[in-house]
Amino acid sequence: MMRKIITFLVFSITIAVSAQPNHSSYEKGMQKAFGLWQEQKNSEAIHLFERIANAEQDDWLPFYYAAQIEITSSFGLKDETLLDTKLKKGQEYLDSAKKLSKNNSEIIVLQALLHTSWVAFDDATYGRKYSRKISKLYKKAKNLTPSNPRVVYCQAKWNIGGAKFYGKSTEPFCKDLEKSIELFATFELSSPFYPNWGEDRAKNTLANCKL
Q1: Helix or strand run (H / E) with residue 112
Q2: What are the b/e assignments for 35-62, b being 16+ CB within 10 Å?
Q3: For position 185, what pLDDT does the model report?
């Protein structure tokens, strides 16, 4: 499933960039990094994103994607030491991205997902530690950019998980999923490499959401 998400992400970005004439070395490097990620060569992709970030010192996106690889590949891990290593590295990349782009809802969403990985690993141990932080992060992101579909989708998915855990109705959050899908349809990318993931997952989550 994760490979399908990555494939769709890379495919979407490749189409967007291919429409741009005169590819720069930056664009070619970013495309190569996404290609490595699609091939599940995560370490190579991360290293390339990091090299691009060091060359493009005012661009938060390479750090963002390096963090995203570490975070998304951490879900499902059973080894706590490995999980800790990946998420600490992911946090370093997020911190670097934050320095370049403050109050960025895309980065805030990744921060929430990083904490969510710990909760998914061991809810009994980490749920109390991170649940309130995650909710606050989504609230902050939504206040910053209420029309960002990833914010609305990820917040809805988090709230659905909480509702199911406490035996409450998921209906309000299923409606939020519907809203996120509407926002995905109209969301305009500010650049070819701007984050563009989540729509398929939102649709799949909605299909399984009990209204």
Answers
A1: helix 105-121
A2: ebbbeeebeebbebbbebbeebeebbbb
A3: 95
